[in-house]
User: Fold these one by one.
Assistant:
Number 1:
Amino acid sequence: MAAQDVLGQTARLASSSALLQVLFRVVTFGLNAFTLRYLSRELLGVVNVRLTLLYSTVVFLAREAFRRACLSGSAKRNWTKTINLLWLTVPLGVFWSLTSGLVWLYLLEVPDPSVVPHYEAGVVAFGLSAIIELLGEPFWVLAQAHLFVRLKVIAESLSVVSKCILTVTLVILYPHWGLYIFCLAQLLYVSVLVMCYVIHFVMFLGSPEATKKSFPVARVKALLPSFVEDETFVNWKEARLTWSFFKQSFLKQILTEGERYVMTFLNVLNFGDQGVYDIVNNLGSLVARFIFLPIEESFYVFFAKVLERGKTVKDQKQDDVAMAANVLELLLKLVLLIGLTITVFGYAYSQLALDIYGGSMLSSGTGPDLLRCYSLYVLFLAVNGVTECFTSALMCKEEVDRYNFVMLALSFIFLCISYFLTHRYGSVGFILANCFNMGIRIAHSTHYIHHYFRESTHRPLTGLLPSPALLLVYILSAGVTAFSEVLFCCDKGWMARLIHISAGALCLAATLVTMLCTETKLIHFVRSQFLSRYLKKGT
């Protein structure tokens, strides 16, 4: 597949995933706002922090390394061996689920049964849900490698909608069920997700469409593990790369979910405060989840397909190098501007957003400060996602192993800083520690990118430099909106709030107009790659 075709399909995958994440976040936030009025903060803290951490830990450790390794390089490979390798995620998931489940049941503080009943059933259900989801891993990787955009959208949409419908129904009819509600909803979510992928491939394989596309897997039976005479069970090159990524993924999980591990294992916050922190954290991560994560996942596939892992820039096709450098520069500029916008406007509108969303329970106390700090953290997330996406797609096995040592040291430092900052500043300390963590990771990734392109004429890191005019507008907007918040927000009535919102809207409009005038290359990239098919539909 030509590099230009890969770019087009990757951009469509990223834009579709972004729209899908918008749906997820809107539904999730609506669900949280609804359940806040029926269920306790302690119950939400146990579900959203303790049990969700169990599920994400098992799934991440069991599959992340396999995804990275099996999506590297061309889609033309011995898929029998790749599928065999991917099925190893299931026994690995069983191991992590049993191990983590025992820790969650017997080593961690158990919630008060009178406040949060059925905790043991919750641990079992969320551990089981992780194993069920891993049963669909070979199907997911095959679909992702061949850029099946529509399948991902349909599967994840149906699973999320099904989960939310069941949750709302049970919360209204049987609120006393407590954790049972979320256990059933979680099991339904993963079951629908896996079944969508299985049903699609059962219908697709052997069809005229699959034959026309020369799909590398001909029968459904080929999606199951199988032995081939006189050949190894797996591709050992992929297996060794998987092991390298596995060591990195273990550390990356600690860094990604570090604050939840500190909350869970060190008991620095009670379950009620954990519930509030999680709600604010989810609200703050809205943009990161529905824009930055789809871009990172999709363009990892692009860079892995266009450039060959382990080769220097001189040994690559120069046309592909030029395209990859240009795309990297524009992606950095795109996420930087989104991150700056969130940081600037998030500071002055955090308290108002929390007051509208959850009332005084969220807008009083540390809630607004949490969200303000998270607005800054979004900027770090934005840049780190794209820079790590590029480096993960290009690093050879030896470089991945060296990076693992860096991550190991960073993990230890991060956990120590999280613990001390949390004792000093409360839950805000978690976000400050995350900013430090992301800053170090960005420094490593940008150093790698600079070193990679130093023997070429391309300088993609210039994407991290916004135009002076746009930077000036951001500074003025920050000053105006902060002054507006002091005068009009948030206890002076709805008319004052509307004035505050209007001031922000005018500043945002001025920012966007300046962006359109000064970042023409970026605007063209967004229009041509992300918005092209939607613009065509509208004409």
Number 2:
Amino acid sequence: MMARFRAQASREDGAVEDFEMQGIDEDYRKAFLEDEAEQQQPLTQQKSSAVSAKSKLPSNNNMEGRKTSAMLFCECSSIRGMPKIARSSSSFLRRMWLSFIIGMTLVLIVSSSLAVRSYLQYDVIVHTSDIPEFPSKFPAITICLHRPFSQRALSLWANSSVMSPRGYNQRLRRWAQEAINKTESNFSRIKQKDAVPIFYALYYDMLEMYYQNVRYEDTRLLSHDPSVIRKCIIMTKWGESHFKDPCNLTDHNFSIKLFSHPKHFNCYTVEPNSEASSLDTIFLGLAVDLGPKPDYLNLQQGFLNDVFDQATGLRLVIHEPNRYPDVEQFGKNIEAGKMTELAYTPTLWNRSNTPVKPCIEGDAEPFEDLGRRFDYSQRECTRMKTQRAAMERCGCIICLPGHPRPRIPGPDVAYCGTFTDAYNRTTDDFIRFSNCYVEDVQPSEDHLKPCLSRCVFSEYETKLSVTEWGATDWQVYWSGKYLNDIEELQRLMNQRDSRPEEEQQGLAPRFDDVKKRIMHYLTKENLTSVQASADQMVESKNFAYVVLKRKGENLILKQEKQVLTLNALMSQIGGLCSLTIGLTCACIVEVVEFFYIYLTTFRTNGQAGTAAINNDGGGGGVGASESSAGVGTHGQRTVLLPGTAPTSLDLDNAANHGDQRIEHRQLHQRSSQI
């Protein structure tokens, strides 16, 4: 702003004689006159004014500055209603807007707290999607026979090498008889401890208790060999078929592993060994021999408590490779003499790892069951903790279906249900172990820590269908023979091509044997003539044929997603802020700006007031540099001394100071109204 001042002052009376001003309003003129009047006061009056100002500076100026800053913040704030409080001339309207701001702020705080609380609960929903043409690994299948004893068991029982089921039943009954005989003639006076064997004689006459009273090595001898899976067939997605009779899948990267079960004794898990074979296989067929019929007339009298569990056929479970097969909980029964098709759809679970329900990324520590190593699973982890607590406190191994056994039982640590000489235990040991397991096995500190589930795991939704298998024994015989001869011929050709020519002659006899077998099939007039010598498994209905195949190429993905994510929480809180008081992120900058202006103004006013007091109380006037220039200072205001002419810088300072005094006067009037 350009202005021209011309002033002539009289040194005798200190009065201003003339002002010529252009482009300056009345407020600027008053501000300049006030500065000149203050500068022309006598020295003694300036000293007294300085003392008075010094005494009032810490209180009045600070209070006035706070009010002015608060009004400035309210007027310039973007919060809805704050400018209304600063600008309104009515006290009713100011109170109304103040009540609105307080009420809406409380609503905002409560609503935001509820939203944050909901977020911290980490509720999830399961989002299911169907992914087409997605390759997945072929599952493992564990097969158990409802009739667990093999033909070899009959001979072991007959020569008394192993205690028979009949011998086990008689031992329980003798135990109960001894308890009754202790009461002599007055049975009504029988004691509780003497009645226990009577209860146990019936309650513990079951297959899984017999399993615990036979040595582990003998349980394997009593049950079936892997050859119980008589025939098997594998198909790949490339159209290849491999029929095996007897079933041996080693050449196709499949293995058959033993799994010992308290009810079914020897079970067998058929699973792929490599990722390539797991991804390529789409079909697996298993024809299982059900073994000999029970000899109830002689050696298999017993197991009265299993009367409702006895069945014929198979019990199987489909699970991930190298995972513990929980046959009891997830198993399916397969009817004898039928063809059962299990069409599965792979389902991949992807759980959300949240602080409320955490899960394990990747694989955790594996565990062992009777020397076989299994990958981690949550259910078996929990049961393993109970197992270890029983071994530590009771000195025995829990033998229940689904409970992993970390070591093979022996005379030092046997099963909790044993009471025979198989592990050098007595009935008293059995009662002590049973009481310890029921009463003393409590969750320890380690057991209280929950086992976490895996974040990523697979399930297999299976649809079961049953029908008659229309094949005959002679068809199965020739099919197995012919396919085996073809595979043998292919192996011989591969070996011949990989050897030097001089070593190829050694394979000639084997080629002749394969040729002879193939020609036997090709020249046979009546293929049914081998009926008498063929295996009678199919037509005798003493089999179960299981087909496991993938239903389609699609994958079902079940993914857990948070109901309220962090982005959704911020959006919800932002909507609440906008709905109530219009609070935005800019308010943070406004608060910082307010404190910056307040602190800067307070510090500047304090320094200016102190400088003015020091100058007025120093006895004399102005400094040498200022007097030489003809200019004096009062706070931040530039004042022309008498007899000096203003420069352009002096004129600009006077104009700026006039602006500040006008603004200060307006804010002071508004704060006084409040």
Number 3:
Amino acid sequence: MSSAFVSSTPPPSLAVATGKSKSAPLPPPSLQVAHHTLSERVHIPSHVYQHPAAVLLELCTSLRELHQIVPLVLKSGLYGEHLFQTKLVSLFCKYGSLAEAARVFDPINDKLDVLYHTMLKGYAKSSSLDTALSFFCRMKHDGVVPIVYNVTYLLKVCGDGANLRRGREIHGQLIVSGFGSNVFAMTGLVNMYAKCRLVKEAHKMFDRMPHRDLVSWNTIIAGYAQNCMPRVALDLVARMQVEEQQPDSITLVTLLPAVADIGSLRIGKSVHGYAIRAGFTSLVNVSTALLDMYCKCKSIDTARLIFDGIKNRTVVTWNSLIDGYCKRVDLASEIFNNLKDKKTLVSWNAMILGFAQNGRVSEALNLFCGMHSQKMKPDTFTMVSVIPAIAELSVTRHAKWIHGLAIRSCMDSDVYVMTALVDMYAKCGKVDTARKLFDMMEYRHVITWNAMIDGYGTHGLGIAAVELFKEMRKGTVRPNGITFLCVLSACSHSGLVEEGVRFFDSMKMDYNIEPSMDHYGSMVDLLGRAGRLNEAWDFIHKMPIEPGITVYGAMLGACKIHKNVELGEKAADRLFELNPEEGGYHVLLANIYATASMWDKVAKVRKVMEKGGLQKTPGCSLVELRNEVHSFYSGSTDHPQSKRIYAFLETLTDEIKAAGYVPDTHSIHDVEDDVKEQLLSSHSERLAIAFGLLNTSPGTTIHIRKNLRVCGDCHNATKYISLVTGREIIVRDMHRFHHFKDGACSCRDYW
């Protein structure tokens, strides 16, 4: 936290004397003033309130105009009049110039209570919470009796800053001041607790209210909607109508995001119908909320109809449509470009996220750079959108650049930005750097723990992942379903079967987390990789839910590793029923047959694929060199250095053979042995490795990114390449990292 916002001494406690006793704690010396009297009713002569300066103050619209009016007030000798003092304090507070407001306020001898209330509102709106609380204590010391709006201002600041400790103190003051049954004060409490994510506590405050107005209902509905409890929010809307409170436009704007979270188009249409009957659809905020709801419920055409019907579109309206079109990113880009000079930070963020989530990493980064060149400062949302895009590239230099930008932008203390950086470094092969950042964080969200555990898992450091998970369980952050998914995956990649089984059982028993399909798939993967195929198959049959693609896919992959034709066929049959258009499963089955030399069945699978128009995803490997990413496909010859690369690979293959490498050609049929070896040596990762070796100096680590799982022969060959060249080679495939060095791999041949 910046030192500019940290007081050297804590602000005064809110539990202060309310009278004028001499024993009451004094305010800081600079704040000591003459005792005020309660002369609230002051006669204002007509020449004062009819003076042109008074009229100008009433018409004032900016701080600049106010600075021009003040000399007229001074010149007219009206500065000492209560009317002008009150108006100047109010306007300076309104425009956020608290220092100037204090210069007017402090010298006044006979201060009206209303001046204190105005100053407190200004501090609450435009200063830090500690400063506002200090003034509140001074106000009470000066004998001013708090009014309900004093506590509601302070509660709002506490809620906006999620400062629960101070919020509870103000709650105490609220009770002491006799506002425990005041609807405004209690609504402020509901809002504060909801924004501090204590929604049950907020509901307790709501239930204690003797009378609830529409604002109270909207506040508690928003509390549940914004705390990921959309169904409770919907139930409350039904309850408010039973209690004869009709939803207004604010209720709908609050409710529609909850409908979007549930993804219920039926309920959304019902809310839309109510909005039409109530005449709210002419309001741009309601129409925009409806547009956003339809987008998130995947009814884009309806969203576009609503957009076309909005006459006075705001930037938020445009941004909602862009966000909705992000799955159709080209259309979103067209809308974004039409905004021209109306682009806001939200617009930029939506487009960057859209490109990143659709795998168009280069466009996301180019847009981010374009935003930077237009002097648009990124916020937290920008960073957590662009950092995963850089993680996908897996280029360390880019990772360091964005990390530096986060530091320079003072976002290195933000938990979400830091979590994204931890995840990014792990995905760029720098798991040690990721752990250093993790250890530096003062506060860690559950997603932070998940990112670090997953980072260890993908690097084959299962024991480290398990130890970190155990450390997490000892603390205050509660694991969620994703945490267990990460730790189960880590156990699977490292062969920690017994630990994984214990963690799976602990999910339901200790944390009451119902396993999802992905958890069951991870368990099948854990048992299958370890060779316990029959146990994995029994596990599938005992599942309380119908097994899905994830489960049978893990089983088929395990059968490929352990060359089990019988169970592989059974898993494949179920996969072909569930997803007949996925060619990858057919390829896996064909490879199982090929390993068992069942060439007639290989031909049969290939014929089925040809007849159904199914294709294997081509292997593609990426390597970055001098700020340019080079792509290589298996057997491709279109790279400018192709001749040099293939010639180098021939020499390199001879060298690794001399060191003990034996090509595994069992999966290739109907060609000569030398052709088999040529086919193996032209796999995309070998082309990328050869390019990296040719274009970097000795000792440089080669980083490769592959879109598919590394094949067994390439894995073996890369170990020997690292041995004969003395290079470290890091390969990130679709599942995990392989760190090759001195003839060995970090996975210990267990992957």
